[in-house]
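## retry 2 of 3
previous attempt timed out at serialization; input unchanged, resubmitting
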Amino acid sequence: MEPKPPLRKWLLLLSLLLQSLQGISQVCDAPELRLRYAALYKSVDAYKPNYALSLADSLLEQLNDLSLADCPLQGWIRFEKGEAFEHLWQYEDALQIYYPLVQEALAAKRWKLAAQTYISMARTHETIERSDDCRRSLQAAWELINQHKLDTVFARYAVRNASYHRWYADRDSA
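## retry succeeded, writing output
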């Protein structure tokens, strides 16, 4: 028995939607985007923040032009942009990236990105001497690390937590 015409239209639309989503996924994972992100990561790591900001903006614009604002890589690009702002001592600019980014990562269940962002927020708060905000960010990161078994993020958390204790709490527990 052949599907009725309205059902056939819905099946065709569903098929086209699934194909387009698969295409978005493939573009989002395109090797050239990954290579440019790797260059961004390296420039932040090498303390070249001005180049990193330029590259981050270029990558974000490219993703926007391709209608890939929901691409998981976009969150990591914004994360690196926040890190670059920290290298330039533009802490408020970094926090303006981190706060919405962490909320979006939580909503999308991107736990590693959320935990890493909380840790960066803690470092920023520590640097600008906001001890309570630093502690809250560390606590939120710990909860994500513990709940979602983010073992690869734990070392970074431990360093930041020790720094917090060194500056604001018990030096012996650092």
